[in-house]
Amino acid sequence: MEPFLAARAARTLFLALAVCGGLSLPDAARAEGGARRVVILTGTEVMLPASQVEDGVIRQILSSAPAGPIEFYSEGLDAYRFDTAEYEREFAAFLSRKYRDKEPDLIFALSDPALEFLTRNRGELWPHAPVVFTSVDRNYFQDRPRPSWATGILDYDSIGRTIALGRQLQPTARRILVIAGAGERDRRFAKTVAETLERLRPGLDVVVRTGTPVSAFSREFGSLSSDTILLYTSMMRDNDGRSVVPRDAAKALAAAASVPVYGTHSTYLGTGILGGALFDYANEGRAAAQMGLRILGGETPGALPVLGGSPPLLAVDGRQLDRFGIPTRRLPPEYEIRFRGPTFWEQYRWRIVAVGLALAIETVLLIALFAERQSRRRAQKESRQHRSELAHASRLATVGQLAASISHEINQPLGAILANAETAEILLDSAASNPEELRQILADIRRDDVRASEVMRRVRALAARHDMEMHPVELNAVAQAAAGILEPEARRRGVALQRDFRGGLPETRGDDVSLQQVIINLALNGMEAMAEMPSDRRRLVIATRNGNGRAVVRVSDTGRGISLEDRAKLFESFFTTKRNGLGLGLSICRSIIEAHGGRISALDNGGGGATFEFELPAVAAGTPRRNDDARA
Fold this sequence. Notes:
Layout: H1 2-20, H2 25-33, E1 36-42, H3 49-64, E2 70-76, H4 85-98, E3 106-110, H5 112-125, E4 131-136, E5 150-154, H6 159-169, E6 175-180, H7 184-200, E7 205-210, H8 217-221, E8 228-232, H9 246-256, E9 261-262, E10 275-278, H10 281-296, E11 313-317, H11 318-323, E12 336-338, H12 344-347, H13 349-401, H14 403-429, H15 435-463, E13 469-473, H16 475-493, E14 496-501, E15 508-510, H17 512-529, E16 539-547, E17 550-556, H18 564-567, H19 585-595, E18 599-604, E19 610-617, E20 628-629
Helix pairs in contact: 3-10, 4-5, 13-14, 13-19, 14-15, 14-16, 16-17, 17-19
C-alpha cells in the first residue's frame, strides 16, 4: 500500500498547488497541451468486440465534433475474468500512477463493473472527472441513488421482442431454451431473462441451461426438435472454468444447433445466429458520445437524465433464413435482413440487361429476316408466276409466228386424206373395186391422220399453259422434237434446217416444253436474221454436244451476225435489234435456262452469222426419276 499512499499524497499536493494557482484541475490539464483527456474504461477486456465497437464509435464522434483536440485513453478492467478485491486495488494503483499528471476531463464507464469500480475508487483516482456510463443493468439504481457526477444509459429490455420474433418465424414452437455461461454475471443475466419471460408469460415452456462447455454444444444442441426457440444470452465462462469470448460462443452454438439461434447483442450478428431485437453497441456508443459532448461543453452530469436504453438493432441474418427454410414473408416489416447474398438480378443486373437487349435485338432481327424471307418468297412466287405467264405468252407468240407453216403442215395431210377418200368413193362406185387397193387407200388415210394429229399435239403442247416440271430428260430427244416443229417453218422461209446431234450426252434435268421453247425461239431468231440472205446461204444448224460433263445445245445461223456492242445487251429485257421486236424473247430464254441451273450465251461465227449456245448441268448419278416442282 505504500506506493499507493505515496501516489495519493503526491496527487493531493498537485491538487493544492492547482487550487492555489487559481486554476481548476481541468483548466490546468488543458493549459499543459490544450487537449481534453478522455478515458474509456470498459468493465471487460478492451479487445472484446462489444468494447471495440463502443470505443470506436465514441472516439469517432468526439473527434469529429468541434470540441477542440482530444486525447483518448482506453483501459480494460477485465472484471469478468479477474473479480477479486486484491486485483481491483492493484488496478487502481496502476491507474493512479499512470494518470498522476494526466487528470481526465471525461470518463466513459462501459458496463456495470466499470461503474462499480469508479464508485469505489473515483475519489482517490479522479475526483473531479465526470462520468458517462453505458450497458448498466436497468435495475442498477433501484436500491441506490445515482451519483451527481455520473449519467448515462441503462440496458434496454428487448427480450420480449426477440421471443415475439421467434414465435413468428417458428409458429410451431412449444418451448424456449435459454443458453448462458457459468460466470456470475452470465448467470445474473440469464436469471434476468428468465424473470422477464416469466413476467411476459409467453405460453411456452422456459428452460435455462448455464455453463455448457463449447466442446459439448454439438452433443447437447445438435438434435433439438424444430419446436424449440433457442436463445443465447452471453458466456464469459463455462462449467469447466474456461474463459470464453461471448461472440465466439455464439458462433460455435449457431454452427452446432439444429434450430435457429436468437441472440441478445449486436456483436453476435454475423456469427451464424438468426438475429433478434439486439442490444446495439453502436447506437449506445453514439448516445453516450452525445452526452459526453454536452458535458465537455459545460453541462454537469447531474443535469442530464439517465436514458432507459438506446434503440435495439432489429435485424436478422438472411443466410440463416435460407439455411432453415424460413420464408421472408413471416418476418416483421421493421426487421432488416443482412448478409443475404445478392440475388441473381442484383449480381448480374447489367449482364442480364445486356443479354436481354441482345436477345430482343436478335428476336427483332429474326422477325425482320423471317418477314423479309416471306416477302422474298412471295416476290419470287410472283416473279415465277410472271415469268411463267410471260413464257406462255412467248410460246403463244411463237405459235403465231409458226401459224402459216403449221397451217400448211396440217393442210397437206388433210388434202391427202380428202383425195384418198374421194378415190375410195370412185372405186366403190365402180364395178371393178379392188379390196387390196382400198386397203392401201385406208392405210394412207390413217398415216396422214396420224401426221396431222402429231402436228396438232406438238403445237398444243407448245401453246398449253403449264408449270415448269423438272425431271431427267434426254436433250437429243428435246432438240429433235423442236426441230420437228421448226421444219415446216424452215421450208416456208427457204432455210436449210440441219441436225447435228451427238451421242454420249450426259443426262440432265429439265422441262421438255420449256427447253423446246428456248430452241424454237433461238431458231426463229436465226431464220429472221437470214431473211435478207440469198436462199442458197440460208442454213440453220441445231447441234448438241458434251461440254466437259455438261449437256450443250447450239443453234447457229448464217445471217448478218451480232455486233460486239449488241452482244453484251442481248439478254436484257426489252432490248432488241428487230424493227418490230419487244425485246423479251432472249430475256425469257435466259430466265428458263437459269431456272434449269444453266447458262446461255451468244457467239460470233467468225465467217458470218451467229451462234447461240446454252448448257445444262448433268444429273448426279443415282438421282431418282421423279417429278419435282421447280416453278420458274
